[in-house]
Amino acid sequence: MIELSAKLSTGTVYLAGEAIECCITFSHTTQPEHRNSQSHSDILENLAWASAQIHCFYSTSGSSGEKTPTVEKTTSLEVTSCDIGDVVFNTKPKILFCDLTIPLGDSKTFWYRESLPIEAPPSYRGTSVKYSYKITIATQKVNSHIKMVRIPFRVLPISPIVNMQDLANLCGNETTEELQPTNPFSEERKVETPLSMALQVLQNLTARRSPNSYMITNTRGKVGRFCLFKSAYKLGEDIVGTFDFSVGTVTCMQVSVSLQPEEILNTSSPAKVTKTPTSKDTSSRSMTVARYHEVTVGLTHSQLILAIPLHITPAFEAEQVSLRWRLHFEFVTTNEKLLPNTEDSNWNAPLNVPIETMVWNLPVKIYSTLPKQITQHTVGMDAYTMYLK
């Protein structure tokens, strides 16, 4: 019996453009019922071939009349019935070996390494669209059927940060030396790649503080002032802001802030589009992934701290869907007097208070973070085993 074990050596989360590595081992083990009696045919096991490649699956929950995006026809293993969706991207299969003989008790190890396209869509599980990635390892024993094992992994987007074509052009330009500190004692010049430059741009964008203040008003007057210290964040960061109700002329009873994605579907032709979808050919879906809530009666100031989950998908644009993020505010206000003055000795709280609720949406930019920062806080399956009898 052959035991196929595969393990992702660099984790289960990758940035688009990174190289993924998988250690694949074929071991000839003894079946328990045959430990005491072994024939000559059990001493050696023969495998005809083995290959590995990456598949990106795409699925929707829309109407049945929606067409599936096309993918270039290349040599690829067939999608089985257990796979949900259609293949929109796949790498060319890499042959690990042909005609392999493994003696009893021995094992053979092979390494599969493949670079993800920097423009590849990210892993995404939305309300209407889903992208998922898997490494497909296939092998066949002599005179037997093909067996496959699929190892899922997560891909984070990098291309929305900056135009990747511009970065590719900059990589060959001498001015790129000015983007990072130089070491006068170093003799070798570090070669910049589009991915490394994109990561540097990501760091610069999310580290920059640019406070913005917004005066919140309704038809009856000022509710308060909100200050957001920056508008670009990485996964795992906290969105921090302050409320100043001392400048308000309308009483704010409570405030809630929700972090919401905006899933914008491209409902036009499945052919590739080169423009940003407009409201005529898109549809949007929203949900809440994190929420802040506070009763603000009697408060002059309050602070917003909203943690960005590590499991969500950063903003991206793909052929079939685009994803953006926003802060959704809900203010509950009233014009009634709710708190007593110092001279009111017989003041009683009102039994009924007329209220109004106003909503406001503020776009925010959420980018990827380094994969190792996600793997430190998550437990995922990075090893799989399959038996060939």
How does this structure look, described?
This protein has three domains: 2-157 and 372-388, Immunoglobulin-like (Sandwich); 161-205, no CATH class; 209-337 and 351-367, Immunoglobulin-like, CATH 2.60.40. Helices cover 8% and strands 46% of the residues. The chain has four helices and 22 strands. It has helices spanning 40-43, 164-170, 194-207, 371-375; strands at residues 2-8, 13-15, 19-28, 44-60, 86-90, 94-103, 107-115, 124-125, 129-141, 146-156, 212-218, 221-228, 232-234, 238-244, 251-266, 282-286, 290-295, 301-307, 316-317, 321-334, 356-367, 383-388. The protein is elongated and about 100 Å long.
Structural class: mainly beta
CATH architecture of the largest domain: Sandwich
- Extract low-pLDDT stretches: 63-75, 169-179, 269-283
Task: Indicate the radius of gyration in whole angstroms.
Answer: 28 Å
Kindly report the average pLDDT value: 80
Report the count of strand segments: 22
Task: Give me the number of helical elements.
Answer: 4
Q: Could you name the CATH class of the largest domain?
A: Mainly Beta
Report how far apart the termini are.
5 Å
The succession of helices and strands, N to C, reads: EEEHEEEEEEEHHEEEEEEEEEEEHE
CATH topology of the largest domain: Immunoglobulin-like
- How would a textbook summarize the main sheet? 7 strands, mixed
Beta-strand percent range: over 45%
Assign an overall shape. Answer: elongated
Number of domains: 3
- The proportion of residues forming helix, as a percent range, comes to under 10%
